[in-house]
Amino acid sequence: MELRRRDYHVERPLLNQKQLEELGRWSSVTGTHQWRTWLQCSHARARALLLQYLPVLAWLPRYPVRDWLLGDLLSGLSVAIMQLPQGLAYALLAGLPPVFGLYSSFYPVFIYFLFGTSRHISVGTFAVMSVMVGSVTESLAPDEDFLQDLNSTVNETARDAARVQLASALSVLVGLFQVGLGLVHFGFVVTYLSEPLVHGYTTAASVQVFISQLKYVFGLQLSSRSGPLSIIYTLLEVCWKLPQSVVGTMVTALVAGVVLVVVKLLNDKLQQHLPLPIPGELLTLIGATGISYGVGLKHRFGVDVVGDIPAGLIPPVAPNSQLFAKLVGNAFAIAVVGFAIAISLGKIFALRHGYRVDSNQELVALGLSNLIGGVFQCFPVSCSMSRSLVQESTGGNTQVAGAVSSLFILIIIVKLGELFQDLPKAVLAAAIIVNLKGMLMQFTDICSLWKANRMDLLIWLVTFVATILLNLDLGLAAAVAFSLLLVVFRTQLPHYSILGQVPDTDIYRDVAEYSEAREVPGVKVFRSSATVYFANAELYSDTLKQKCGIDVDRLISRKKKLLKKKELKLKRLLKEEKLQRQAAASKGTSVSINANTSIRDIESNNMEGSKAKQVSAGKELEDTAASGQEDAKAPDGSTLKALGLPQPDFHSLVLDLGALSFVDTVCLKSLKNIFRDFREIEVEVYMAACHTPVVTQLEAGHFFDASITKQHLFASVHDAVVFALQHPRSGPVSPVSVTQL
Fold first, then answer.
1. End-to-end alpha-carbon separation of the chain, Å?
2. How many other CB atoms are found less than 10 A from the CB of residue 535?
3. What is the arrangement of strands in the sheet containing 523-528, beginning at the earlier edge strand?
4. What are the coiled-coil residue ranges (predicted)?
5. Residue closest to 123 by CA, chosen among 436, 431, 395, 368
6. How far is CA 581 from CA 578, 589, 619, in A?
7. Can you spell out the DSSP letters for 115-132?
8. Dihedral of alpha carbons 126, 127, 130, 136, sign
9. Cβ-contact 615, 591 below 8 angstroms
10. Whole-angstrom distance, CA of residue 712 vs CA of residue 690
11. Among 108, 483, 541, 705, which has the minimal tally of Cβ within 10 Å of its Cβ?
12. Torsions phi, psi of 118, nearest 5?
């Protein structure tokens, strides 16, 4: 189908950079001193800071009670029903007594209600964060350090106390990192965690969670491991000890898992008909606790249960600062991962419901949640995708839903927590494994990324493999390093192209991709798809010379050799002339050979016949010297044509620099070398489509001088091409080419 043509006529003069600046009255933007704004002190400034760092004061006075309160109450109740079993289970995943999962479901959630900006995310315990905490607690406080001498059993009381101290100190350190990064507006750090990286990392973390729960599913006693390949050794040990499995524990986990899966399927099937989802996890926990208490699963079948859950809250405890040095690396990794998960979910819900999430304030809010929570013996938290989806789908409108859920958890901690002492740990493990469905489904990303972007697939796979093999902290560092190196590698090998003009337009496209695009006769237009900097500047120059279809370096080398040879020949002839003159003067002759002497003058000279041979030789030298001197004085004496060298089939080169986002010193030198080399082979160089910040950086780097001015820089490629055709370096301009443009 042919495109309908419309006649557009735009008439304007050709504009180089100097003319464009004069026409547009360009002036450099004066930098504002941000610190002056920070140090301003006024009532309005103080109020703005208070509302910025305590957002609840901004939205709570305008809260529409009649419209939103009922939805937030129902949503908070639904989230609390999920929060209870997940808190107990994820504490187990973190290597801590289950009650500390309840604490982590109360304090941080209420703190986020005061400082958070996302209305729909459910802050609290999360599987990935818990398994990262568990890797720290189990590596720094392994079971082997708490063996009793008499019967070689583990002193669980001392072990749990040490792990709680580690987890709370870790939470405080994570909070300090997050608050500090938020206050210095370092929220953009999460941009270095791309979506494929986050998906690959969370998928690997879910595999680690799954493997770590197998010991509770089969009732096995495993050794504590940490570091690279620890998850592989754990899986091998599980397979080795399978014959020692406790049948009662396996049956309990299997039944609980089947019930949870059936309830989730019913919720998905009846989603449109149910006002609230069926609380399958809570019902399973209540039923399993009742059966365990009535049947006596622990005593009769050897099923391990949760044990003592103290009622009431515990007083705040200052963290052990001596542990900070051991935890700093893991704390930073947990801080970044927790924030990345929270902000990604927060932005999804904000986009869906039409409000804005402040990434820096989210860092501060999460940091304060972890910091204050760590003082009250909590472990690091983030937000849960499953609970956030429930909070949104059940009518949650604001952070009030989170506050309601935390109050319900408070009631459970104070009054009802001790009722779950007979809850089998196998049921909690089954609940964790069933909740991993969403993250394990991310394996389907492999197929979609294979079709969409294989570089992103490579990031996903490297992240997954590195996290599985190196553990969560080192795996994250390796994944970030690989993704950044991949970006550098991709900028080192960009797409280079020679551009041609699309007929009847001022648009230039790659002639290799657009069959109708035609190169403008006499002009080469070269473009790179990436900015030019130290990592690819040499490749840029080499590819440019290669794409031009002529060996520039060899041509320059041949030219210099010929010029040097010519210069040496001229010097030799002049020396011989001088010697001949001296010889003639000593014999009283008047033979004079100079650059302007003609053959007729030499033949008419009054010389003796016996000197005819000498005069003939002198005449030959004279002619050669004269021609050499004339070539040296002529303006085209050193041209390629005069030297008998091949000439390029173009007289002008246009560099499309529209892809440049910055320039460094290597880029400046490379551009200057390009000007020098192509001018050496009689090709004039122009630049086009530079952005204003790049022009400013070129000026700051003293790029422009007497030989390269802003008149060599044009507003667009078309301007540069037309100017090059109207002002060729050598040879007449073709009228046909100009009118075609």
1. 26
2. 16
3. 508-510, 496-501, 523-528, 652-656, 684-688, 713-714
4. 556-583
5. 368
6. 5, 9, 12
7. H---SS-EEE--HHHHHH
8. negative
9. yes
10. 11
11. 705
12. -85, 135
Q: What is the pLDDT of residues 313-364, one digit of tens each?
A: 889 999 998 999 999 999 998 998 899 888 888 888 888 888 888 889 999 9
pLDDT, residue 153, reads: 79
Neighbours of 536 (CB within 10 A): 22
Of the candidates 239, 202, 263, the residue with the CA atom closest to the CA atom of residue 431: 263
Rounded mean pLDDT, 592-618: 41
Angle at alpha carbon of residue 69, lines to 67 and 71, rounded to 5°: 85
pLDDT for the residue 9: 64
Distance CA 27, CA 25 (A): 6
Of the CA atoms within 13 Å of residue 626, those in its CB half-sphere come to 14
Contact 80, 405 (CB under 8 A): yes
pLDDT tens-digit map of 139-197:
898 888 887 766 667 788 899 999 999 999 999 999 999 999 998 888 777 778 888 99
Q: Kindly state the tokens that stand for 195.
A: 């979506």
- Return the structure tokens found at 102: 């309840």
> Do residues 252 and 297 lie in contact, with contact meaning Cβ atoms separated by under 8 Å?
yes
- CA–CA separation, 68 and 70 (whole Å): 6
Q: What is the pLDDT of residue 257?
A: 92
Cα angle value 691/693/694 (rounded, 5°): 65
∠ at Cα 339 (118, 91), nearest 5°? 100
Q: How confident is the model at residue 598 (pLDDT cuts 50, 70, 90)?
A: very low
Sequence-distant (≥ 6) Cβ neighbours of residue 165 within 8 angstroms: 319, 320, 323
Count other Cβ atoms within 10 Å, centred on residue 347.
16
Separation between Cα atoms, residue 577 and residue 91, nearest integer Å:
102
Q: What is the DSSP letter of 29?
A: P
| Strand-pair partners of 501 | 508, 518
Close Cβ partners of 558 (under 8 Å, ≥ 6 residues apart): 645
- Using left for φ > 0, alpha for ψ between -120 and 50, and beta otherwise, residue 219 falls in left
CB 32 within 8 A of CB 731: no
List all residues 6 or more positions away from 285 whose beta carbon is below 8 Å from its beta carbon: 84, 85, 88, 420, 423, 427, 431
- Say how far apart CA 82 and CA 385 lie, in whole Å: 12
Q: Which residues partner with 714 through β-bridges?
A: 16, 688
The alpha-helical segments, DSSP class H, found in 94-246 are 99-104, 107-115, 127-140, 156-183, 195-212, 214-218, 230-240
Tokens representing 243?
Answer: 């014959």
CA 622 to chain centre: 72
Q: DSSP of 590-613, one letter per residue?
A: -----TT--HHHHHTS---GGGHH
CA distance 453 to 469: 25
Residue 523 backbone zone (phi > 0: left; psi -120 to 50: alpha; other: beta): beta
Give the pLDDT band of residue 38 (cuts 50, 70, 90).
low
